[in-house]
Amino acid sequence: MSQSKIKLYSYWRSSAAYRVRIALALKGLAYDTHPVHLLQGGGEQHHPDFLALNPQGCVPAMRDGQRMITQSLAIIEHLEETRDQPPLLPTGSRERAFVRAVALAIACDIHPLNNLSVQQYLEREFGVDDAGREKWMHHWLGRGLTAVEKMLDNNIALGRFASGESPGMAECFIVPQIYNARRFNLPLDAYPHLVSIDKACAALPEFQAAHPDNQPDKPADA
Is-above-0.90 flag for pTM? Predict the structure, then answer.
């Protein structure tokens, strides 16, 4: 596997791209950011040059040597398989399954119902206003985060982080989703484990570097 510098196609506020930035930071991997503005000019992710790289027309996409990889979970698994230190997954098979379950609960069940394309469709096709959009977001975020909170409550390996005393794949997904919840004004009192994990991560330089506020493509007026 080539160890050449990685190129990450990212948008500063994309939670999926945020996941990959955290993983890259935890792995200590250098990368170049190639911004893809999801709103400008109708969305640069829909432009033919980007669709040639990722036919789904979404971020993140990551070039590692000659290979282009899409989907945040696939990218993070690729990083774990090709750069195994420090590990993002625990050693035991049951613990690894739990971490993957948390990641999938967020990536497959929470995020798809709340991403930008869904919000735009609700507005365009059904005339949903800001209040209606927030109600939609609160419903699906709340339902999903309630389930993840219960998963954590039942995890005997729960420590400072989701599966022990070191952050890993689970935190790559939890932290961006909590960021989204705050962005859409969802009260977080019902999720003490998730809030505690997010707070522990916020103190670490890797998570600070990956935060949307610290991205080169964040607009000055955002």
Answer: yes
